[in-house]
Amino acid sequence: MASPDKKTKKKWKNQTLIASLEFALTGIFTAFKEERNMKKHILSALLVSLAGIFFQLSAIEWLLLLLSIFLVISFEVLNSAIENVVDLASDYHFSMLAKNAKDMAAGAVLLVSFYAVITGLVIFVPKIWNLIFD
């Protein structure tokens, strides 16, 4: 007979690929629903995608743009997960370690956002320049 711990673990273990996908999609939708910054990231992604269509980006430019988009969104999801775990572990009481963990996770989002901005500038500034001055 299995111990209670093993039964509990099995209940939370993904039994199928479909179950894994459902949990992952639930996580993404939860982040979109509950995180203010996620809405801003999605809006930015839509706007730069429309700009990419307008400027007829090359395959390489699309790959770099999509890499930027997915990195920022992925890091935001991870940041949100870290914040939730820290809040749970600290029971919402102030702790310098909890603050540091949350600040570092937010810093990771900021760093990858800088990469996305630089990528956008490298791709779009020459195209906008040519549109205006050619």
Automatic annotation (TrEMBL):
Main location: membrane
Keyword annotations from UniProtKB, A to Z: ATP-binding, Cell membrane, Kinase, Lipid biosynthesis, Lipid metabolism, Magnesium, Membrane, Metal-binding, Nucleotide-binding, Phospholipid biosynthesis, Phospholipid metabolism, Transferase, Transmembrane, Transmembrane helix
Reported cofactor(s): Mg(2+)
Entry annotated with the keyword Cytoplasm: no
Active-site annotation: E76 (proton acceptor)
Residues at which substrate binds: E76
Cofactor binding mode and count: Mn(2+), Zn(2+), Cd(2+) and Co(2+) support activity to lesser extents.
Protein's UniProt keywords contain Transcription: no
Gene Ontology terms for molecular function: ATP binding; kinase activity; metal ion binding
Annotated localization: Cell membrane
GO cellular component: plasma membrane
Annotated membrane topology: Multi-pass membrane protein
One record GO biological process: phospholipid biosynthetic process
PANTHER family in the cross-refs: DIACYLGLYCEROL KINASE (PTHR34299)
Protein family membership: Belongs to the bacterial diacylglycerol kinase family.
Name of the protein described by the UniProt record: Diacylglycerol kinase family protein
